[in-house]
Amino acid sequence: MCETSEEGERLFTRESIQMTSFDIGERILSLFGYQKLANVVFRLRIDSHELSAVIDGDELPSVEMLLGIQKITGASIDWILTGKGSQFLPNETLMIRPPQTLPPPVRPLRKPCEAIFVVEIPTVS
After folding, report:
1. Interval 9-66: pLDDT, tens
2. Residues 64-117: pLDDT tens digits?
3. Which of 110, 22, 5, 99 is nearest to 58 (CA)?
4. Enclosing H/E stretch for 28
5. Domains of the chain
6. Which residue in 96, 95, 77, 98 sits closest to 86, CA to CA?
7. How many CA atoms lie within 13 Å of 55's alpha carbon, on the beta-carbon side?
8. How many Cα neighbours within 13 Å face the side chain of 37?
9. What is the phi/psi pair of residue 100, to 5°?
10. For residues 106 and 104, what is the distance between their CA atoms, to the nearest angstrom?
């Protein structure tokens, strides 16, 4: 703690952090083109509850999540957290994997189709 801070004083209130985390969640969703959360979870290889908590503004993203987002999208971590500065890293510092090495997006599960069979019974006359 620096010398000018009062003991117990915080730089940010809980309310200001929560408002900031809502904005962070929105920026993360925008980077993935507002895909379904299951697709984002799969691509980042994280727990769905962790991502939901960040999107809902209940938690701030972990360092691992931020680095994963940066690696996949090329987004600036500063921009993700603050919304300020350049949204993407300069080309020479991008860590994006080539598209052919990205895991495919998760397809939504479909309910199995119920087969309907029509059986014609010949009538005897």
Report:
1. 788 777 777 678 889 999 999 999 888 999 999 999 999 999 999 998 889 999 999 9
2. 999 999 999 999 999 999 999 999 988 755 555 444 444 555 554 445 545 455
3. 22
4. helix 14-31
5. 14-101 (1.10.260.40)
6. 77
7. 18
8. 13
9. -70, -15
10. 6
